[in-house]
Amino acid sequence: MAAISTQLLPADYFVKTHQFTKTVHRDQYPSIDPASPKLSQKGKTVIVTGASQGIGKVSLSPFVKLSICTLI
Questions:
Q1: What pLDDT, on the 0 to 100 scale, is given for residue 59?
Q2: Measured CA distances, 26 to 11, 42, 66 (Å)
Q3: Smallest Cα–Cα separation from 24: which of 34, 11, 37?
Q4: Which residues contact 71 (CB under 8 A, 6 or more apart)?
Q5: Dmax of the chain from CA atoms?
Q6: Is the pTM of this model over 0.85?
């Protein structure tokens, strides 16, 4: 089986070919924004599983930017 060159594919090729719904949402909206004081995790321990790739990695970024005390 030949490897597919990702340089020839659109940036969202893998998202669109494997999506389960007609619409894919990528925006972060205020009600789930980790920077919101209402959702503050300051002084708490946050555990993110699968943080090496995919949704775990994306979920990890806001917590790193907010300098959470303990991040596992």
A1: 75
A2: 14, 25, 20
A3: 11
A4: 45, 46, 48, 60, 63, 64
A5: 51
A6: no
Amino acid at 22: K
User: Which two structure tokens, joined as six digits, stand for 67?
Assistant: 């300098």
Query: Does 4 score more than 70 pLDDT?
Result: no
User: By C-alpha distance, which of 25, 11, 21 is closest to 55?
Assistant: 25
Q: Both tokens of residue 16?
A: 């669109």
pLDDT band of residue 30 (cuts 50, 70, 90) is confident
Residues whose CB is less than 8 angstroms from the CB of residue 28 and which lie 6 or more positions away in sequence, other chains included: none
Q: Which two tokens stand for residue 62?
A: 């806001």
Left if phi > 0, otherwise alpha if psi is -120 to 50, otherwise beta: which for 70? Answer: beta
- Pick the more confident residue, 37 or 26: 37
**DSSP SS3 for 18:** coil
